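Sample 1 of the test manifest.
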Amino acid sequence: MDYGKTILLTIIVFAVGVLILPNTVSLFAGQHYWYNLSGSGNDVPCVKCHADVYEELKLGVHRNLRCEDCHRANKSITYASVSGSYTNYTPGKEAHAATCVACMLCHQINASYASKKPGPYAGGFNITLFGISSPYNYSNATFNGLYEAHNSLVAHAIAKAKNSSLLLDSTEACLACHANIEVRMNFNVSTGMNIVAKDVVLGYNPATGFNESQVNVTGITITGFRSVTEVKS
Amino acid sequence: MRYSGLALVLIALAVGLVMVGTKSVSIIKGSHDVSSHVNCSSCHRHVAEEMAITRALHGPHWDLSCVTCHRFNGTGIKFANATASSPGMQAHAAYVPSCLDCHGGKGVWVVNVSGVLVHAPPARAFNVTTKVNGRNVTVVDSIPYFTAHKQLIAYCIKQGDENLACLACHTNYSVNISYSYPDYINLIISSWNITSLTIGPDRVYNVSFVKKTLFSGKHVFLPLKDINCSKCHLNIYLGLINGKHAPIYYAWRWGNVNLWGFYRYHGLALYGSTLNTSWINNTYCNECHRALKVTLVNYKTGVSYTFDISKVTNASSVHCAEKVSCLTCHHRNSTYWWLDPYYAFLNATKSNPLYAPYHEDLINQTAKYPRFIHGDICLDCHMAAYHWGSCDTCHTGYNKITTQYTEP
């Protein structure tokens, strides 16, 4: 083996090592180094496993929030916690460390009773128009959302989420617009209409002095649907 | 060298995995990169592409943004606004506007993409709107009866989507229309009185105007000059060419000239050695259906006369067309009644003593019968569709029994 190949092999081994070594080491190193949760600021670092989420979080409007502001925000859930001394602890009931969260937990109207960190109300939606219910408050008499163009999207996201692996409640719909995620949408777009018109006789009209007639429209149907795929990237 | 290449690939792979691996494996990449600013066209690219066509055509709305229409602030609808820290009330991001939200009443001023105030003009005749929950809704009964297309918009309002009526004409939307109207009328005339008039069974004709572009057309707003009457009224267009809609047919004349020595046709442009169908366009339609003035030419002298007929028509107060019959202009109360040799009263309760008991009095009697056949009775002599050219066609004796096919 000449000198050049030796150098090359060294580089390859080094490169593979960069990829594998940290994981290999993590299997052993530190497994007896337990976090002390009793002190202030000594929480389990979510970023340890969710560095990607942390990186994303810092890019958006939630950049000043901590993980627990959302994922331990549900007032109806008792999360495991330690306060002051490790002997002063609360075991988790419905959840231990964190829960998945629906956007509307914090962004529903009157979120203060549901969230430890209520956000601004995302008003202007109405899901009852579609016969959909949710544990979160989308509208009331004042904030009725009757004219929102995306009500259908929100309502159907909720309906789908109930029996699938989609994110909770309307979160998929919220993210579609408000998050930097790729969304593939198939729109069924109409391209025309059929109109049925017929001459009819209305009868004598004293105001005009005529036996009036007109062309009545008796039917309009939207037609020519075609599929349009939109990809938001 | 071969090994060097392999090494570089492996190095790149290793570095790539280390540097970007965490992002790649996230369940929904970007789900925590949340923004309060949303770009409509990122999800509605096809709409943006249609609007680009509108801009190229310089059609209505060419200089407007999504927000101008879909977050229009003149309805009282409050949208979510991150800048103003206000939640949405009646809508969050956008609403589906009614065309008349802007084009009802006296119209509104909106800001275009250049930040300039531009006026959305009222949709004349259809702008008789009232506010319902802050939004303009057309009061159908207030639309003048003589406004063509009134029933179209009335039906759409009844169905809850009056925009459809607007889209049919003002956008590049395909339209298929099935019209049905009486095939013919049967007349029995005795001693200068119409003693019987019955209407034949319906015939149906279909018009299909299929857009030729890829796009649905709902957001391709056509310049007014590109709205073609024949798109929906192809049968009338063909009737004009073939002489079955109004008495314009070049090849047929009744003694060549009328009582004043004029040719008796409306389509002045049609005089000449050949019939030029390209002259039958919107302008030609408007000569009757949106007539504010008419020009008649004495072809013997070459002198033309232009008359303001706005007082006998309602052209200034209709949307795009007026529902007219021959008698709209040719009636006794017309300002220019002296142009009218028939001198009809347009009132079924009156007779026409001046010309009774001649053909002309029959015109007056048509007021008893449905408006849409008035023209047919006129055309019985003046164009008469399949019956023109001979008195014998109608007369089998002193009295008249005739079948008159209706005009398109």
